[in-house]
Amino acid sequence: xxxxxxxxxxxxxxxxxxxxxxxxxxxxxxxxxxxxxxxxxxxxxxxxxxxxxxxxxxxxxxxxxxxxxxxxxxxxxxxxxxxxxxxxxxxxxxxxxxxxxxxxxxxxxxxxxxxxxxxxxxxxxxxxxxxxxxxxxxxxxxxxxxxxxxxxxxxxxxxxxxxxxxxxxxxxxxxxxxxxxxxxxxxxxxxxxxxxxxxxxxxxxxxxxxxxxxxxxxxxxxxxxxxxxxxxxxxxxxxxxxxxxxxxxxxxxxxxxxxxxxxxxxxxxxxxxxxxxxxxxxxxxxxxxxxxxxxxxxxxxxxxxxxxxxxxxxxxxxxxxxxxxxxxxxxxxxxxxxxxxxxxxxxxxxxxxxxxxxxxxxxxxxxxxxxxxxxxxxxxxxxxxxxxxxxxxxxxxxxxxxxxx
Length: 405
What we know:
- The chain has helices at 14-26, 60-67, 88-96, 110-122, 127-137, 147-166, 180-185, 192-201, 204-208, 216-230, 241-248, 262-290, 326-329, 340-346, 377-386, 392-404, and strands at residues 2-3, 32-33, 48-52, 80-84.
- The protein is mainly alpha-helical.
- It folds into two domains: 2-96, P-loop containing nucleotide triphosphate hydrolases (Rossmann fold), CATH 3.40.50; 191-301 and 318-405, no CATH class.
- Helix 2 (60-67) links the parallel strand 3 and strand 4 (80-84).
- The radius of gyration is 27 Å and the shape is globular.
């Protein structure tokens, strides 16, 4: 028997993990006790899998993956799955829950580009760093859709660099500058990390905290509200007038997140417009350079629409669009976009543009249709402060919450 807790973290190396995996397959280890690490990325078939005790990490996906170890090919006709100290309701939920959908994402993000430049700069452009970057950008999975998608990835890379230059995160020589270290360190919070950078760059936090000694309470509350808008954002599922009257106004708690300070909202809106301009230009140049065919196929069926004589101009005919889908343009829309969401949703065929990888943060109510939910971890900080319960223990909890976000 071997337990995952039987040796310290510092000794849990790849060699040890591979040794345990090999010994278990050979039959020298009869029982292995582990956490969710047995769910993914290993080859350890066994006769029986036991789930001992409940956990928030025991999801339908982890259950299916770990339970799939039961039943050795060529040895067992059936595998055994045993539940210990789990409620019947949880077991039924694990057995009947559907697996989450698999969604593809654009392979290159702006934060990834910034981190690659940081790697190159901090290593002194060492051969190892150059090989690592070339290897990453030449991965076959980046170009699964063929040469056309490869051109789009490289084009996206070029405009991501343009964005980083305009945000003063890269110098003209490609060296990370200013708040590039902070932004790349917060890579897991993209796009919130870029919002923090633009607020720092425009001096919002400096101006806000200049009165910290005279208006401590007001400054701290404003700071908490801004951070709650940037990190851990959760839109409310309901925001209609009936919900506001029956739930929001009657609730003793804060349901909707208070609005951003006007200056912060103005800076973020201006940043979103600059980003929209950059990526609208990105789509225009990509279409001009790489897409020659007309956008005349229906999005879902692929059926070609339109007449054969395209040179005939009728009275009142709308001018052709280069960026927006021709089918959306039938409603009178041109190549002028109001928001980044509008750009991504209505871009013409042949261009894959994912809203999640464009560095922006929607501001309610003009760029986002629903307010943010205040009953989440970031807003709890504001509630704690408003109720003046920021004891030493609460401050420690706040630090823990921010660390997890």
